[in-house]
Write a structure and sequence with these properties.
By secondary structure, this protein is of the alpha/beta class. The protein is built from 14 helices and 20 strands. The two termini are about 35 Å apart. Bound molecules: zinc ion.
Length: about 475
């Protein structure tokens, strides 16, 4: 099957170029300047021609932080691998890296096998796994090496959630030492969970149960403090560290300082920290529960710092932390007690569009948009050059994107399996037209034309930014 995408502007991290793209089977075969004899030959020999006139042709998005079917308090996040990856495809994302979870007392391998069973045969697009280590001990440390060999090259630890995922500083140091030896990247949820639990108990004791207290009890200072501490531990271990869902100026300052020193410190932020704020958490009645995630949405002043971080590369990735819970039944578990509200927002479908608003608003360049939603995640998570670039030899994960298309984000029209939108009523300019996953069209306009189970597990290499 020879497919040609013609008439479009290819946008890679390096910027835009007017070129036609020849796809042979599952791979990108070649690019040729628009209107050139080579491009005309592409079209003449094609089985299928996709007209991208007036549109961008970008590498499929890579969302390095999702939680499909994640167990939480007797329930699960509501997107399955089937519904969640389909929604991702609608939004121009062609690879997710989800988090497999080690339960306490079980091995890493058991957790990984559980997640393989959830995903295999159900995904619309390709997928990989990070591993959450919630029980650092001699055997799980040793197991990390084997997982790296099997394409799971990043491990997440938590400085938050005592009694659940929390690891002590000593445990974190040991995991980092193991990563220093096997080349893995340690991912960190940096919030001081011990101090936060004290603040939460104090707030509840005073009768402060509304959703907004979720934010007040997780101050940005405690994200900055944990970020500082993790950086020092990584420095001692000689291991790279990647901060997930960085939300606060205090944390960003720590990352910037470490990077200036030359330490291998990386960070992602998420669209919710760029577009939403503590004002949403404080919405009337129980509405704020829709916006409960951790770290919490911050005061609006942090947003300009985060955009600056994206420009300076102190923030090098935007992921979603997609972890949807329905407002009815799930979020409602926390009426009167914010600490019982399931943590997480839906977002896997909207990342590419939302970050494109930053291009329109002059916050970032066109190339930088592609870099932070596709190219750098591919490099960071060991998927490059197979994914993350429109280039010969790469998987034909390609999105035709209409920069002038408009739509309104809403639960009435989104494809995520959740009963509300965190961005309800928001008008965006920029819209996915066509999505190809390994050469197969999976989204055509507003239609899903893919198949369940098309998506394959991708075995990931080591962090490509370290070599
Ligand atoms: Zn997460």
């Amino acid at each position: 099957m020879r497919t040609v995408i013609t008439g479009g502007t290819v946008v890679n991290a390096t910027g835009p170029v007017d070129a036609d793209v020849l796809i042979e089977g599952e791979r990108i075969e070649a690019l040729a300047g628009r209107g050139s004899a080579t491009a005309q030959a592409f079209v003449a020999g094609a089985d299928r021609v996709i007209d991208a006139t007036g549109k961008y042709v970008i590498p499929g998005g890579i969302d390095g932080h999702t939680h499909m079917e994640m167990p939480f308090g007797g329930t699960f996040s509501v997107d399955t691998f089937e519904t969640g990856t389909r929604a991702a495809a609608f939004g121009g994302t062609t690879t997710i890296v989800d988090f497999a979870i080690q339960t306490r007392g079980a091995s890493l391998r058991e957790g990984l096998e559980t997640w393989h069973a959830k995903a295999q045969g159900h995904c619309a697009i390709d997928y990989g796994f990070h591993m959450i280590v919630s029980d650092v001990n001699e055997s799980s440390l040793k197991e990390m090496d084997g997982l790296v060999d099997d394409g799971v090259s990043s491990f997440k630890l938590f400085m938050a959630y005592p009694g659940v995922f929390y690891s002590t500083d000593g445990e974190i140091l040991q995991a980092m030492q193991q990563a220093a030896g096997n080349g893995a990247t340690i991912m960190m949820h940096a919030e001081n969970g011990i101090a936060i639990d004290v603040l939460v108990a104090q707030a509840l004791a005073r009768g402060h149960g509304d959703p907004k207290y979720h934010g007040f009890t997780r101050p940005s200072i405690l994200e900055g403090e944990a970020t500082h501490r993790a950086i020092q531990l990584a420095r001692v271990a000689g291991a790279p560290v990647y901060f997930v869902h960085l939300s606060a100026e205090e944390a960003l300052a720590e990352v910037a300082e470490a990077r200036d020193r030359g330490q291998s410190v990386f960070a992602e932020t998420c669209p919710q920290y760029l577009f939403l704020s503590d004002e949403d958490l404080a919405r009337e009645g129980f509405e704020g529960a829709k916006y409960v995630c951790s770290p919490p949405l911050r005061p609006r002043r942090h947003q300009a710092d985060l955009w600056r971080g994206l420009r300076t590369d102190d923030l090098s990735v935007v992921s979603t932390d997609h972890c949807p819970f329905c407002f009815k039944e799930h979020k409602e578990l926390g009426i009167g007690n914010f600490s019982k509200i399931p943590n997480g927002l839906p977002g896997v479908e909207h990342r590419v569009d939302l970050i494109f608003q930053g291009v329109r608003g002059g916050e970032i360049s066109l190339g930088r948009w592609v870099e932070i939603v596709a190219t750098t995640p591919a490099k960071m998570f060991g998927l490059f050059p197979r994914k993350g670039e429109v280039a010969p030899g790469a998987d034909a994960d390609v999105v035709v994107y209409d920069p002038h298309g408009t739509h309104t984000l809403s639960a009435a029209t989104h494809h995520m399996n959740v009963d509300y939108s965190a961005y309800e009523g928001m008008d965006v300019t920029g819209k996915v037209s066509t999505v190809l996953s390994r050469g197969t069209v999976v989204v055509d306009g507003d239609e899903y034309v893919g198949t369940t189970g098309h998506g394959r597990f991708v075995s990931r290499g080591l962090n490509g930014l370290l070599r």
